[in-house]
Amino acid sequence: MDDSFFAYLQQLEVMAFFSGYPLIYATVVVFAGNQHEKNNFKTRATSLLPFAYALVGTLFLGFQLRKLYPDYSVEHLKLTMQQPLLIIWGLLSLLFWVPALAKKRVLSLIHSLVFFFFLIKDLFLQFFNPSANNDIIKNDMRIYTNSLLLNLGSVIVIILLSLFYTYYKKPLRS
Amino acid sequence: MLVDRKNMLHVILLYALDHGSVKFNRILLLCKYLITNHFKNTFMKLLDNKMLMVLLILISGGVYIVGCTHKNEPVPASVSTGTVKTNHGNHIHLAGLTNGDSTQWKLDQVHSNATWSTAFDGVAAPLTGRFNSFGVADVSSAALQTNYVTKGQPLPDTSWAFYENVPAKTHFAGYVQINTSNTGEPGRDGGCFLTTMGTSPIVAGTQNLTVTNVAYIKTTSVEFDPAGNDYLVTFNFTWKGMLGAPLTESITGKLTYVPEAAVSTTESYMGLEFQFQFNCRDYGITATDIGSTITVDLNMNFNNK
Question: Across-strand partners of B267?
Answer without folding.
Answer: B264
